[in-house]
């Protein structure tokens, strides 16, 4: 019989997306099914998600909550309109929703109930929003083994102690060896402590997060799980991100020449002039993503002769600085503050280089997508960026991008100037772009590693 897996997350393509988590939860189950596993995905029923009604469930969380469950293919959606039928997944531009603790506790309780009344082999939970589930399953004496994947240690689901009663847990769990964290509740810590196996989305990040500098205060907790902490690098969905079949880009292509048509259209539509090299960025606008060193490099970027197109949304003060940058250089810089999947595809296809100057990066998908579109990544050597990008050497022509290590605008600028040199050697530039298109970061190999992991995972504290 096929292994039965439940994926539980707060976002997944094509239904709800704010970042890479959605790509992973959308794509990995497809690859796992191709390997013969039976995978179901559980999501909140956000605004606009339809599906067919398939179940009702009552949950005690202080008062009684009546929940409906909807289904669409292999997806189940937990419906509680007061919590999930809103604009935005986690908050508005003003900040997080004040009831995120209630929202994701309810979601976790409902999914745990549904799991307990069925027969899953593996329950694969993703990020803090699902951190309580491994504990709820243990308390419910579930036979399912739990895998908890950390997509970003920087987001932990921390809530004040006053909210602890909502979780319905014994006070004994609110201790330093439990889910207490500097006086608060910490959902991510719960996932780390009570799951049978913990994974992260690249091998390098699995090591980095055990250090005091990169552990976001949970390095010590992670070290206690060292024997069960594994890094598996993300892939991308090669059907969705494919320049040969992509309906969202200007012109489908399979080579460098075809790519140039997309480049020209993108420059025209964004009002960028000249033949200068174009750097693209598609990113959440957050401190993690390196915007502070980017802002300091603005003048050099212009002086060196680059054009730039940025798509993203998030931190207001960075948004303002980016917008000013484009106002000062309207024919050189295009800044688009929004979430726009179509424009994202067009930037991946039409840019010469793709920039990710991240302070930290658990895996990063932008560099993998850009490779697929023949757009040369320029990245900082951290996390999954270090696992997937190798520095280009103009003598041997080895490498697939440009890397800088020290987190500073000076080193970012040095990497940019190296990329400018290759841009000016047209033959080498074209070869590198086409080489990038042939590098394979589809899910195949990583999905096999997850299958092996599922097979090897045992219920903790048992000999099974
Ligand atoms: P993270 O998960 O930290 O946000 P990743 O690089 O792992 O970063 O994944 C980001 C994903 O979100 C990519 O698929 C990227 O194309 C997409 N994305 C980010 N910002 C936007 C945006 N403003 N509009 C459209 N897609 C975006």
Q: Could you please describe the fold and organization of this structure?
A:
The protein is of the alpha/beta class. It folds into two domains: 4-235 and 443-462, Rossmann fold (3-Layer(aba) Sandwich); 256-437, Rossmann fold (3-Layer(aba) Sandwich), CATH 3.40.50. It is built from 18 helices and 20 strands. It has helices spanning 20-34, 81-84, 100-116, 133-139, 164-167, 187-194, 203-208, 219-224, 256-269, 291-296, 298-304, 316-328, 341-350, 366-372, 383-388, 409-424, 426-438, 444-456; strands at residues 4-8, 38-44, 52-61, 63-72, 75-79, 91-92, 95-96, 122-126, 145-150, 158-160, 180-181, 184-186, 197-200, 229-231, 278-285, 307-314, 333-337, 353-356, 376-380, 402-404. The strands form four sheets. The chain has a nine-stranded mixed β-sheet with strand order 3-4-5-2-1-8-9-13-14, with helices on both faces. A six-stranded parallel β-sheet has the order 17-16-15-18-19-20, sandwiched between helices. Strands 10-12-11 form a three-stranded antiparallel β-sheet. Helix 3 (100-116) crosses helix 4 (133-139) and helix 9 packs across helix 13. The two termini are 18 Å apart. The mean pLDDT is 96. Residues 19-21, 23, 282-284, 311-313, 339-341, 344, 363-366 line the site of adenosine-5'-diphosphate.
């Amino acid at each position: 019989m096929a292994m039965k897996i439940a994926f539980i997350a707060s976002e997944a393509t094509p239904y709800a997306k704010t970042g890479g988590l959605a790509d992973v939860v959308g794509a990995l189950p497809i690859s796992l099914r191709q390997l013969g596993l039976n995978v179901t995905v559980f999501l909140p029923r956000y605004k606009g998600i339809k599906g067919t009604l398939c179940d009702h469930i009552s949950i005690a969380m202080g008062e009684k909550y009546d929940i409906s469950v909807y289904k669409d293919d292999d997806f189940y959606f937990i419906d509680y309109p007061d919590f999930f039928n809103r604009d935005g997944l986690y908050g508005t531009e003003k900040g997080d929703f004040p009831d995120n603790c209630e929202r994701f506790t309810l979601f976790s309780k409902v999914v745990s109930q549904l799991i307990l009344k069925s027969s899953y082999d593996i329950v694969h939970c993703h990020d803090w929003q699902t951190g309580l589930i491994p504990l709820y399953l243990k308390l419910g004496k579930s036979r399912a083994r739990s895998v908890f994947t950390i997509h970003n240690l920087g987001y932990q689901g921390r809530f004040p102690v006053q909210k602890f009663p909502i979780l319905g847990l014994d006070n004994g769990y609110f201790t330093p060896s439990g889910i207490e964290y500097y006086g608060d509740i910490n959902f991510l810590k719960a996932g780390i402590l009570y799951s049978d196996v913990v994974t992260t989305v690249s091998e390098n990040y699995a090591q980095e997060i055990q250090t005091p500098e990169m552990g976001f205060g949970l390095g010590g907790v992670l070290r206690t799980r060292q024997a069960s902490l594994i890094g598996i690098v993300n892939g991308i969905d090669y059907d969705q991100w494919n320049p040969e079949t992509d309906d969202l880009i200007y012109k489908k292509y399979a080579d460098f020449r075809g790519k140039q048509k997309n480049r020209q259209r993108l420059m025209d539509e964004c009002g960028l002039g000249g033949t200068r090299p174009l750097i693209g960025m598609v990113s959440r606008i957050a401190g993690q993503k390196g915007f502070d060193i980017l802002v300091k490099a603005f003048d050099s970027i212009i002086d060196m002769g680059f054009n730039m197109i940025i798509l993203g949304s998030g931190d207001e003060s960075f948004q303002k600085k980016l917008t000013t940058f484009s106002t000062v250089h309207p024919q050189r810089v295009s800044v688009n503050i929004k979430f726009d999947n179509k424009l994202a595809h067009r930037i991946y296809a039409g840019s010469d280089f793709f920039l990710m100057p991240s302070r930290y990066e658990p895996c990063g998908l932008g560099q993998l997508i850009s490779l697929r579109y023949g757009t040369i990544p320029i990245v900082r050597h951290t996390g999954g960026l270090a696992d997937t990008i190798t520095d280009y050497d103009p003598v041997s022509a080895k490498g697939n991008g440009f890397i800088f290590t020290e987190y500073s605008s000076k080193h970012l600028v040095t990497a940019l100037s190296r990329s400018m040199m290759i841009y000016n050697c047209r033959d080498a530039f074209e070869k590198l772009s086409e080489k990038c298109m042939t590098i394979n970061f589809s899910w195949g190999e990583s999905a096999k590693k997850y299958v092996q992991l599922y097979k090897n995972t045992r219920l903790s504290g048992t000999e099974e």
